[in-house]
Amino acid sequence: MPTFTTADGTRLAYHLRGEGETLAVLHGGPMRASAYLGELGGLTAHRRLALLDLRGTGDSAAAADPATYRCDRLVDDVEVWRAHMGLEHMDLLAHSAAGSLAMLYAARYPHRVRRLLLITPNPSALGMRATPEDRLAAARLRADQPWFAEAFPAFQAWLAGDADFDEVFLPFFYGRWDDTARRHEAVGEEQTNDEAADRYFAEGAFTPDATRAALAALTAPVLVYAGELDGGPRPDLARRTAEAFPDAVLTVQPGAGHYPWLDDPEHFVRETLAFLDGDPGSARPAQISGSPGRTPS
Predict the structure, then answer these.
(1) Bridge partners of 22?
(2) Which burial class, exposed, middle or buried, applies to 185 when counting CB atoms under 10 A from its CB (0-12, 13-18, 19+)?
(3) Which class is domain 3-131+190-290?
């Protein structure tokens, strides 16, 4: 397991899986160790994944200063990691909460990003975030599921702040609530640093206007990848995220939730590889690939 040391002396670890050209990967959660990403649906057959454990997660050391868990404070850790790996510029994939970290990195170090893949991203860095109404609208798409009648009221109460998080509504985060999803979710709590997660989106982490201005000049192509059934982001929020970049494509995976590589691995690998294997210098307007299906506008 390779390690490196950040500017403030924190030892961070990352994991190498697969063969081929390096794809740097940032995990979400926020602050859930990279182990949950697995092989990203089999992407390891085509790329060497370098999966960073952010400070305080997985095999990386805890931060001496907990304030450094804030999203914007993690950007320079990513830059030190890039330099450590000897990459002049890199293809960078970020999932969920790490979408905001990757946007901040691209805004600060645009010349270091060759391609950017934002998988079901949280776009707080752009001043946007999934609302309770977004999440409930997506949840209602699952009304035909046998677990819906019990899960929906609990989900509604949690989003309203009237109840604690309840495992009964975990199926809303997956396109299929099957044995694969259950195994994936079963280890989620033990993989997450709750203290770090609480600080990740802390006040002062984001300056959306400045970030948008910087990203408007980003020359790297960007893939924004959404799940048809995901509530955070829903396809419409993902579309608005893509519009922040001059060269972006939006893909909506049919039947997918927040972890699209679990719901249909072949579809996920096919779409991500099509983007990675494209010409990084070709300009493309933001567009839809796939079908938004039943998602209301």
Answers:
(1) 48
(2) middle
(3) alpha beta
